[in-house]
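Anyone have tokens for Vacuolar membrane PQ loop repeat protein? Sequence:
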Amino acid sequence: MASSLTTLVSGSDISLTTREALSGIFGSISLACWIFLLVPQLIENYRNSSSEAISLAFIFVWFLGDICNLAGALWAGLVPVVTAIGVYFCIADGVLIAQCLYYGIVNKRREGRALLDGQASSSSGGAHHPGDDDHNDEEEPLLKRTRTNSITIPGSANTRRHSSHSVRRRRSSLAQTDQLAKILEESDESGTRLWFKNVMSVLAIVVVGAAGWALAYESGAWKPSPTSRDSNQEEIAPGAQILGYLSAVAYLGARIPQIVKNAREKSCEGLSLLFFVLSLMGNATYGAGILFHSTDRAYVQKNLPWLIGSLGTMAEDVMIFAQFHMYREREKSRSDEAVF
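Reply: yep, here.
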């Protein structure tokens, strides 16, 4: 994830061409995407007090890819900014993994305590009275949301009801219908706001990345790099190249557990859409930064592991976007059926 950033500290005096400028701009935007990448998912987990939607296999394999990437950068002797970004990736992954493990432990303990309390109350509750079920139904919330964001009506599995409560059931049904309609209206509104916030966040990151490149160029911290074979830098060590390919394999394989988890649960609830949008943007601009710099065969082969790791994962990100859309439409249709 780092080769296109080497020109940030280049000291060569080469005229700036349009292609080289675009390479620098795309590389800077990619850097901004990677810096802010995990923030939306960290916020989403904090807001939900849960990381259940994230596949731990996804994060762990991604973490292994970042470790290989950092090791390859150190082995190849790439510029300090590249190594610093690799270290940042590993730290950010560690924070997300720690958050996932924390919420997993806390929520498991909470469920265990709730189970014990329920067993204790049932054992000390004494004999069952006919009116107990009706009393519990009155105290139970009208709507409950499951992991897949589907709406279930409490007590729907219990078909035994006394005829004297038919009027109350009809009133409850009407109240539930009104509540369902209100929830659907709120979810549509929040969905619109969510897309607007995501678009504005992406535009802000693009502006920050482009402005960062302009400041680096004006200050002399960024200068165009040579592209001819004669002035080519020394070859990357074979071991560093192997680590680059390992990181590419890890990046390609990391999203598979998340895609499988989403398909199994028929839901993307709890995942941050902006997290995957920034991932797609970061990979696209990273690959563009490399290819705009040079399409020379030797240069492309030198950067092939990082190109595979970035451009290859874009197809998997598109699959996750399709899951977001498909499962959202399915949940909306189920909610509509529940209303009628």
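The radius of gyration is 26 Å.
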